[in-house]
Amino acid sequence: MALNPDSLWAFSPMHRLQWEEAQQKDxxxxxxxxxELNQSSAEILKLCDGSRNLxxxxxxxxxxxxxxxxxxxxxxxxxxxxxxxxxxxx
Length: 90
Description:
- Helices cover about 35% and strands about 30% of the residues.
- By secondary structure, the protein is an alpha+beta fold.
């Protein structure tokens, strides 16, 4: 499924994003298992609260990390997240 950059993205209610002390990283929990996330992926998903589209997520992360040119990487990750059911259009 292709990512619509104008959609507002929300973390799926069928999954839970949380810090896992045993792994020392953020994870996605769901009935069938767990996905370990790197810091970048976790930061992106934390912004998927139903109030941001792709451009707003990019802007917020570029400001937070004082970086530029993140749109392509963020867009690619959101497409993976969408196809895995971790985020939904809101």
